Amino acid sequence: MATVKVSTTTSCSRAINYAEKRAEVKDGVNCDVDHAKQEMAMVRDMHGKTDGTQAHLVIQAFSPEESQQLGAQKINQLGVELAQKIAPDHQITVYTHIDKAHFHNHIVINAVNLETGKKYHQYKEFNHVKSLNDALLKQHHLEIVQPQKHFEKLTSAEVQMKRRGKQPWKDEIRRKIDAVMADRSVSSYQVFRERLELSGLIVHERGKNATYELLEPHRRVRGNRLGSSYEKEEIQRELLSRDLNKQNIKENPLKRAPHAIKNQKILKQKEVQKQLRADFQYKLASRTHLYSPKKNFTAFKAPQPLETISLLNLWAPVKPFEKSLSRGFGLSL
Predict the structure, then answer these.
(1) Distance CA 273, CA 243 (A)
(2) For the whole model, what pTM was predicted?
(3) Ordered DSSP codes for 142-160
(4) Fewer CB atoms inside 10 A, N or C side of the chain?
(5) What is the distance between the alpha carbons of residues 254 and 241, in angstroms, rounded to a whole number?
(6) Cα 21 from Cα 110, distance rounded (Å)
(7) Nearest Cα to 123, choosing from 4, 250, 253, 255?
């Protein structure tokens, strides 16, 4: 299985220096790996994007078993494939380190796009890179790291009930809590308690702990007896993380992630319409002297009154019919 870590740096050269001197195998995409620092810097200078984030970094680490099975060359190739999926049309270098039991790739991605000159931005970059990495591993028939499930603490009585096909009443409490926490709009402990109360579950504070009271049937249990995922501190930590994320998006609207491809198209159309309006206003301002003002136009006026023409005079006179004698021979009856 292969895990990934992501980060950014304001010094692309420093990241390459660190990764290159320990590399067993190295390769480049859209650049010469031996002159990557100079070529990446040239692209950033050309587009005037030298400030802020210069490069995105990804560490792709394999298990010791897979490291011995695949080898450094194959692992480097997997790093190149992952980098091309993450940021096409970017300059990328991949350095494979074998100084530890788990071989790993240091992937350095130049922040500026070769084609557009725009910087690479990906909301929730770790989730994006992880999904691409999992797809790559599946393609090569390698093991994928499975997400960890929240821990549930079961008593022997609950285990026996489940074996007999019965549902313990504690599972009903867990289900109600899971349903509320699945709603990402819930970002405060107060809202969390109110939502549970609406579902028939009351939360009682007991210092650092919380006790959940199920109204139907009337049962109580402490959060730490349900499992670590249901303890008060763990839930508050998750809700605090959501609240901070909301505040960050509110302060930086550009970091808001479109929730669907349709929304992305709408945002793009709005940008195009905004640019079209700006271009139209500029062109309109440059055409101020194209037409003469209205005061320069005068109404048509004939030099003398026109004669009234009768419609009858327009017809040609009819020529009178004259009877003429024929000089031919006629038949006499």
Answers:
(1) 34
(2) 0.47
(3) ---PPPPPPP----HHHHH
(4) C
(5) 19
(6) 19
(7) 255
Phi, psi angles (nearest 5°) of residue 316: -70, 140
Amino acid type, 99: D
**pLDDT tens track for 142-164:** 877 655 444 555 666 666 766 77
> Residue type for 111, please?
A
Closest CA to 245 of 179, 186, 309, 175: 186
Average pLDDT over residues 262-276: 71
Degrees, nearest 5: CA angle 49-273-269: 80
Contact between residue 150 and residue 227 where contact means Cβ atoms under 8 Å apart:
yes
Nearest to 94 by CA among 112, 111, 73: 73
- Whether omega before 168 lies within 30 degrees of 0, making that bond cis, reads no
Beta strands in the chain (DSSP E): 2-9, 25-29, 55-62, 92-97, 104-110, 201-206, 209-214, 219-222
Rg of the chain on CA atoms, in Å: 40
